[in-house]
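Data deposition worksheet. Section B asks for the primary sequence of the deposited chain exactly as it was used as input, without tags or linkers unless they were present during the calculation. Section C holds the resulting structure in token form. Section D is free text for depositor observations; keep each observation to a single sentence. Incomplete worksheets are returned to the depositor.
Section A, Depositor: J.P.
Section B:
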Amino acid sequence: MRQTSFSNEEIQSIYKLIGQNVKYYRTKKEMTQLALSYEMGYKSVSLVSAAELCNDAKHFNIEHLYKISKILDVPIARFFEPLALLNDES
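Section C:
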């Protein structure tokens, strides 16, 4: 069986891409971090703010992404696409 390795940098770059994409779609829908947080069931922007920037090792999990995709009406797969592709769809 083949062993696949994943670097911490590689994983962090995925989390950063997802955060950037969430921010892209959130701002495209003209929704604030607070509004998105409330819709997700949170009372502050701390999760959304930190996860969009991938600060303090905070990132979105699958449940978060599922809720965000429903709230923003965006297919969940879009959060994993390179930003250049997203900017071309405008």
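Section D:
The chain is about 60% helix and 0% strand.
The chain has one domain: 11-88.
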